[in-house]
Amino acid sequence: MINFNGNLLLEENIKLSPENRGFKYGDAIFETIKVNNNKVIFWEDHYFRLMASMRMLRMKIPMKFTLEFLEQEILKTIKVQKEAISYRVRLNVYRKDGGLYNPKTNEIDYLIDVKENKYLTKEIYRIDVFKDFYNYSGLLSTIKTNNRIVNTLASIYANENDLDNCVLINENKGVVEVTNGNVFVIKGKIVKTPALTEGCIKGVVRKKVIEIITKNQDYNIEETTISPFEIQKADEVFITNAIMGIQPVTAYKKKTFIADFSNKLAKNLKVLEITAS
């Protein structure tokens, strides 16, 4: 069942209006959230990112949109799903119907869609660079809007070329992210990840991993510009998102990688998922 504005409805009863702004203009944002054993993982980080994104896009935030309210709406939706240990939740927020580029209103609708989370970390994970189109740098690119056409095309390219993922680059040919998450590159004791100014999504798990590495006295973390050539020279590469957590990359072009520190970070992140409030 789907949660539409607080009402639980069967999927077949959800009707998309031809005036839906998420459909017509991509005038929508979303959060992809993991729920394990009825615990919404890193919920505060997701919530505050959602609020910041709504403000940036000039959406009117309803008074009832509190941290507690939305968490309960997520859990309410999960209760009517087929029982599972882990769920993948998509919380979509979009401006109400009407208008052309200029909307009739800044008030919003929301929709919560829940699926069982079946993701398992892959032992073999191949990536390459997607060069056909750029993921432009800038603050707007850091928001999870419904405008995901570059990610879609890169995913099709990956599938056509027997890859698990693709690296997106910006207009300066710098690494931005992968199609579904942030990317980290390890060389020696330096861990690099693209700075937000490169156009990458302000990932919740990205933030958590940076916090973990910052506390590690043996490694230094840098948010910076990364060239695709640095991936090829790296000792380790891994990607992050809210569902997979940490996924080590094993191959980039003809280069293969170890996953020693990546696996240690994955264990630290698991502990954080369990212990975080």
CATH superfamily of the largest domain: D-amino Acid Aminotransferase, subunit A, domain 2
Q: In the CATH hierarchy, what is the architecture of the largest domain at level 2?
A: Alpha-Beta Barrel
| H/E series | EEHEEHHEEEHEEEEHEHEEEEH
- Could you tell me the CATH topology label of the largest domain: D-amino Acid Aminotransferase, Chain A, domain 2
Q: Could you give the order of strands across the largest sheet?
A: 2-1-6-5-3-4
Question: How much helix, percentage-wise, in residues?
Answer: 25-40%
The computed structural class is alpha+beta
Compute the CA-based radius of gyration.
19 Å
Describe the main β-sheet briefly. Answer: 6 strands, antiparallel
Q: In percent terms, what proportion of residues is strand?
A: 25-35%
Question: What is the class of the largest domain in the CATH system?
Answer: Alpha Beta
Distance between the termini: 27 Å
How many domain regions?
2
Global mean pLDDT: 96
Number of strands: 16
Poorly predicted residue ranges:
none
Give the CA-based shape.
globular
Count up the helices.
7
